[in-house]
Amino acid sequence: MTTPAPLDPLQSLYDAGRGNALPLSAALAALYGPLALPAPPPERPYVVANFVASLDGVVALDDAGRTGGGEISGHNVHDRAVMGLLRAAADAVIVGAGTLRADPDHLWTAAHIYPPLADAYRALRSALGKPHPPLDVIVTASGDVDPYLPVFRSDAVRPLVVTTDRGAAHLRAQNPPPSLRIASVGDVPRVTARAILDAVARAQVPDGATNALALVEGGPHLMADFYSEGLLDEQFLTLAPQVVGRAGASARPGLVEGVRLAPGHAVWGDLLSVKRAASHLFLRYAFPTRA
Is residue 140 domain-resident? Predict the structure, then answer.
């Protein structure tokens, strides 16, 4: 098998330099440069999100078979490598059921998204004292997911479904595999961002480690919950140099869907860093949050 050539380093255009530097391996430091994250708040994980968007703000196409972020980024290798870096640092990767249905064979692990850096990602987890896989957290109010998809049966992840009482009953009726853990947030119509973080905090972590960093990867309605509840600390956003357009009643979503924040509840970010790979920009913003 041919070994892929090393990626060109991301060009750093601006970095505010906040937080504590992660112990990146030489390969990851050469690619990304320093990556620092603040300590988590005492009552919940530190929450970051990672998305890719087109120049006109679209994060997913509505074409059959083309609903993933790869279609937006142009399957950009730097975007995948940075996604792997964030997953490698995370204790939990949180996605909505719609994201799972769009890519049912996916595993939300660093090695799965960018295999050439698998060893470097494992080294980072080890250096962080995280030898075990992250929680792969699937959020669904209805419980309408296939409990036998790869994410629920792979040894590479620790799957957790966060759902309602109704959704939990629906899942348990399907005889899910023992590896699938179900956390119900109660007899409620929907699963809030706060309830998700509470479920992640309650999840058993091997060897006494803590769920200190949660990574949200979508979709846009899940992002709306975290933004509207003031529970997103940072947004990593890859800006892809394409314009995809919308027409009529197009379902092509933006970063946040299902809630209007501005003008009454506008959320303004503080720019933390800007990096560049050719014509792709890698942006990072911090946001004010509520405890």
Answer: yes
